[in-house]
Specification:
By secondary structure, the chain is of the alpha/beta class. The chain has 2 domains: 137 residues, Aspartate Aminotransferase, domain 1, CATH 3.90.1150.10; 254 residues, Aspartate Aminotransferase, domain 2. 42% of the residues lie in helices and 17% in strands. It has 14 helices and 17 strands. It has a 7-stranded mixed beta sheet, sandwiched between helices. Helix 8 links the parallel strand 8 and strand 9. Helix 4 runs parallel beside helix 5. The longest helix is centred in the N-terminal third of the chain and has 21 residues. It is globular. The protein starts with a helix and ends with a helix.
Length: 409
């Protein structure tokens, strides 16, 4: 933990927004599960592209286009290395995790799901990993099956494995719950699913910023991610897919770049990864995503994980000192976020007061409304931590909760 003690001020200085005030109080940003803040190097990369070599990629022989194309494609290599994909063409750029899941549903799903088939998900899924499968099931006459959770917010693995059967065509599962913080044993689960011939998609939106991800070691068929969850810009993310699976899938959208040749009689589709990347991509955002990966690598995911685990442990202990606070999700394997409720106080009311004290937390259902319905609660207050947060900021949150209780109780 020496890194944390010696370098936190330097780390925080890399993020301009952390120096600002909200309601005349220094900002405490605990909404990292929704989106992370951006270091100056990421902001500079975006500005540099638009200031100095803004151009479309892949389609020009002039210098700016060549420079942009080189920078853009270099990020594909960075992502490949970051998630340990076997080939660079297994990395498909999308607008983010949601589009990546919809891509799989619209292409692999429409080709492989038939009436009577089952798609298996868990009760902790984000809406983005529920709604596309509901739409597909409705279109195909298939059935969406939901695995329940244990009382601590962990996945009921015994139940999950028993629900895998000859009708199950796809398992779509989050790596880390954005509401409970639960880290699922995705390698074990993927292995069990593959034994039964089930294709596996892992929603990695919350995972890449907290832990090392090796898609080959996990063994999944698809893995989705968003740059803005890992200190990059919004509007860019991607889909990892195993080469043989992607090759067998039809294109997602038609247009420029995803073709080899076009005539009025027929079209020949491009090779991977371009078959799935129709139209002008988010070039600047992609390049800035590469800068975010470089920044995270410069610190090290193992270091980040240690720093965030210390914050999680400290915050959990401080919250448990308060008899009016109930933590929702107490799995032994958790990422650095805590969802909680304050007895007799609605989360929105609490969040409003906490914001007035300069602290950004998320309140509501966190795009997991079915989970909240299962738990019988209207929502939670969620504090999600990044490596640039501090114990002193957690102390401010604890003080703010005390102020909330003074006002409402």
């Amino acid at each position: 933990m020496q890194f944390y003690a010696l370098d936190i001020d330097k780390i925080r200085a890399d993020f301009p927004v952390l120096a600002r005030s909200v309601h005349n109080r220094p900002l405490v940003y605990f909404d990292n599960a929704a989106t992370t803040q951006k270091p100056q190097v990421v902001i500079d990369a975006l500005t540099d592209y638009y200031s100095n070599y803004n151009s479309n990629v892949h389609r020009g022989v002039h210098s700016l286009s060549q420079q942009a194309t080189t920078a853009f494609e270099a990020v594909r290599d960075k992502v490949q290395a970051f998630i340990h994909a076997r080939y660079r063409h297994e990395v498909i750029f999308t607008r983010g995790c949601t589009e990546a899941i919809n891509l799989v549903a619209a292409t692999w799903g429409r080709k492989n799901i038939s009436a009577g088939d089952e798609i298996l998900i868990s009760a902790m899924e984000h809406h983005s990993n529920i709604v596309p499968w509901q739409m597909l099931c409705e279109e195909k006459g298939a059935r969406l099956v939901v695995c329940p959770l244990l009382d601590d917010g962990s996945l009921n693995l015994e139940m999950l494995f028993s629900m895998m059967n000859s009708r199950t065509r796809l398992l779509a599962l989050t790596h880390i719950s954005n509401t409970l913080g639960t880290i699922n044993p995705v390698k074990l689960i993927t292995g069990k699913a593959h034994e039964k011939g089930i294709t596996v998609l892992i929603d990695g939106a919350q995972a890449l910023s907290h832990m090392e991800v090796d898609v080959q070691d996990i063994g999944c068929d698809f893995y989705t991610f968003s740059a803005h969850k890992i200190y990059g810009p919004m509007g860019i993310g991607g889909l990892y897919g195993r080469e043989e699976v992607l090759s067998a899938m039809p294109p997602y959208q038609g247009g420029g770049e995803m073709i080899k040749s076009v005539s009025f009689e027929r079209t020949t589709y491009n090779e991977l990864p371009y078959k799935f990347e129709a139209g002008t991509p988010n070039v600047g955002g992609t390049i800035a995503f590469g800068a975010a990966i470089d920044y995270v690598n410069s610190i090290g995911l193992q270091t980040i994980a240690r720093m965030e685990h210390e914050l999680l442990t400290y915050a959990t202990g401080r919250l448990l000192e308060n008899p009016l606070v109930r933590i929702i999700g107490t799995s032994p394997e958790k990422a650095s976020l805590i969802s909680f409720m304050i007895d007799r106080i609605h989360p929105f009311d609490a969040g409003t007061i906490i914001d007035q004290l300069g602290i950004a937390v998320r309140t509501g259902t966190h795009c997991t409304q079915p989970l909240m319905d299962k738990l019988g609660i209207p929502g939670t207050i969620r504090a999600s931590f990044a490596f640039y947060n501090t114990k002193a900021e957690i102390d401010r949150l604890i003080e703010a909760i005390g102020k909330v209780e003074e006002i409402f109780l």
